[in-house]
Amino acid sequence: MKIPFGDLQRQYLAIKPELDAAAARVLASGWYILGPEVRAFEAAFAAYCGAAHAIGVANGTEALFLAMAALGVGPGDEVITVANAAVYEPLTILQLGARPVFVDVDERSHTMAPELLAAAITPRTRAIMPVHLYGRMADMDAIMAIAGERGLPVIEDAAQAHGALWRGRRAGSIGAVGCFSFYPSKNLGALGDGGAIVTSDAALAEKLRRLREYGWAPRYYLVEPGGINSRLDELQAALLGAKLAHLDAWNDRRRAIARRYSQLLAGCGLGLPEIPPNDSHVFHLYVVRAPGREQLQARLAEHGVGALVHYPLPAHLQPIYAGLAEPGSLPTTERLAHEVLSLPIYPELSDAEVEAVAAAVREALG
Questions:
Q1: Three-state SS string across the chain, please?
Q2: 156 has which bridge partners?
Q3: Cα 210 to Cα 225: distance, rounded to the nearest angstrom
Q4: N or C, which terminus of the chain has less Cβ within 10 Å?
Q5: Which of 116-120, 199-203, 320-324 has the lowest mean pLDDT?
Q6: How many CB atoms lie under 10 A from the CB of residue 57?
Q7: Cβ neighbours of residue 147 closer than 8 Å, sequence gap 6 or more
Q8: How many other β-carbons are positioned within 10 Å of the β-carbon of residue 51?
Q9: What is the mean pLDDT of the segment spanning 190-214?
Q10: Model pLDDT, residue 1
Q11: Nearest CA to 284 among 355, 172, 189?
Q12: Which residues are within 8 A (CB) of 219 and not within 5 positions of it... i.e. 6 or more apart?
């Protein structure tokens, strides 16, 4: 049995009539950029997240860039974030002329360690950007408390946490802004690129709408410096609108798969992810810790099981970012990067495939 790490075709086939109808509606409309489908999806996604506004943009990376730009982040500023979530956060911070300041992560949650946050704040700090990694939310109570004491806005990177809850509040709705990616493999994924920013600040929402379209207000009149072209298109908005109705059920299935993996892999010598007793984890990824990660990944491939590494090299150790933080300064982040391995997890996995993946892991471990 070959079990790929991901299979986007399965989701399309599962709701094919809805997606086909949405696409046909857009094609027949003759309107393809920032039209009624985008407005409808923005309203629906804002309501789902529990925010007053959603602003559709071209992708999740530009969502981060625009959120910081709207909050006034610029040259000489610092933005505190983590280094274990690929390179998207420092990439966008540096694009604005600001400097990323990294704090280490919690051993169990792989998210920002709040007890290290206060010491990283300086007079140049302009914002705090926690990442809800792998589908698990960072400790927003502690982070918001520290941010509130210092008068700093919090930008939630919720690109992997669509639908996750923190004490009854959706990911993205707790900080000043929440940033989402709709890359096809996300819990809520487009059939192409897409992203969104959510906020309950009306003035900030209007500024973001101007910034995503050159700084226009009205069309062809530039009033907002720093604008770019970052627009969610009608086709992706319509497809995302069709998928949004299924998101909670898909997240429930992801949690069920995660629970089953944890049952089947208990006692096999792997570090297994925590399954919180609430809905703060939507298992975008099921990430285990294996000291012999490369050997395990190779053995799984021999068994026909796809497994990937998220992520192999922390941002501060990327050659292009040399000097942002010294090697060894983020010990937990660096240790996890050598051990993490993601097993297949998507709602369309069958129970038999989940059992087969677990059996392959156990056999590979001997």
A1: CCECCCCHHHHHHHCHHHHHHHHHHHHHHCCCECCHHHHHHHHHHHHHHCCCEEEEECCHHHHHHHHHHHCCCCCCCEEEECCCCCCHHHHHHHHCCCEEEECCECCCCCCECHHHHHHHCCCCEEEECCECHHHECCCHHHHHHHHHHHCCCEEEECCCCCCCEECCEECCCCCCEEEEECCCCCCCCCCCCCEEEEECCHHHHHHHHHHCECCECCCCCECCCCCCECCCEHHHHHHHHHHHCCHHHHHHHHHHHHHHHHHHHCCCCCECCCCCCCCCECCCCEEEECCCHHHHHHHHHHCCECCECCCCCCHHHCHHHCCCCCCCCCHHHHHHHCCEEEECCCCCCCHHHHHHHHHHHHHHCC
A2: 178
A3: 9
A4: C
A5: 320-324
A6: 32
A7: 128, 153, 154, 175
A8: 23
A9: 98
A10: 81
A11: 189
A12: none
Asked if residue 98 lies in contact with residue 127, where contact means CB atoms within 8 angstroms, the answer is no
Of the candidates 305, 329, 348, 284, the residue with the CA atom closest to the CA atom of residue 137: 284
pLDDT for residue 366: 86
pLDDT at 306 over 90: yes
**Residue 277 banded pLDDT, cuts 50, 70, 90:** confident
Say which residue the tokens 């709705």 belong to.
173
Residue 254 scores a pLDDT above 90: yes
Nearest Cα residue to 155 out of 203, 216, 112, 219: 112
Furthest C-alpha separation in the chain: 66
Amino acid at 39: R
Asked if 190 and 180 touch (Cβ cutoff 8 Å), the reply is: no
* Pairing verdict, β 99-102 and 177-181: unpaired
198, 173 in Cβ contact below 8 A?
Answer: yes
Query: What contacts 298, CB < 8 A, 6 or more positions away?
Result: none
Taking the C-alpha atoms of residue 253 and residue 247, their distance in angstroms, rounded to an integer, is: 10
Place of tokens 């700084």: 215
Residue partners of 253: CB distance under 8 A and separation at least 6: 347
Residue 86's pLDDT band, with cuts at 50, 70 and 90, is: confident
Strands 340-343 and 286-289, sheet pairing: antiparallel
Query: Is the peptide bond prior to 344 cis by the omega test (within 30 degrees of 0)?
Result: no
pTM over 0.90? The answer is yes
Q: Which two tokens stand for residue 13?
A: 């086939």
d(CA 220, CA 3): 50
